[in-house]
Amino acid sequence: PALEAKDNVISFADDLVVEKTYDGLAFIVDSAKVSRKGDGEISVTYKGEDDVAFTATAPTNAGEYTVKATVKGTAEWKGGEITTTIIINKREITLPADVFEGKLGENLESGKFGLTCINVAADTNNVVEWVTIGAPETYYAIGIHTISATVLTVDNDNFELNKGVDDTVRFTIWNAPDSF
Q: Which of 74, 139, 165, 177 could, after both became Cys, cross-link 145 (CB 3.0–4.6 A)?
């Protein structure tokens, strides 16, 4: 009679990196970081918090993801799968000092209306060139506004604002834009 396949022991390597800061690049878990008995084929798949199914496409955006390593069974060893969690943290951006006393204008280099824009191309491998810091529409009226830095927005979910020591921003709107 043929021998029955043996139970497999599958694990991730101790030095598996499970966290990084957003850099525009995919967070790939190398199949070489998966150990198993025998030589069953290894596949690595990913699933985000809002995803329904696992996919072979490694995540690039900030968030928490489940990584599944699947080992195909062989004549000698049973197949199996294991999962772990990886995290891509938002990249922190700091408001430049000059933004705390400025004019809100639509002539930002990012091409968007806002308080300021920050070039992040070097931090994101040129995937994202600019992030624009905006204020709530309530403050789009002509006039001088002083608002809390906590209500400022970043136009890209992969970034978070480091508000720094200044907790208010004062800016002037000379003429309100027609559209945003």
A: 139
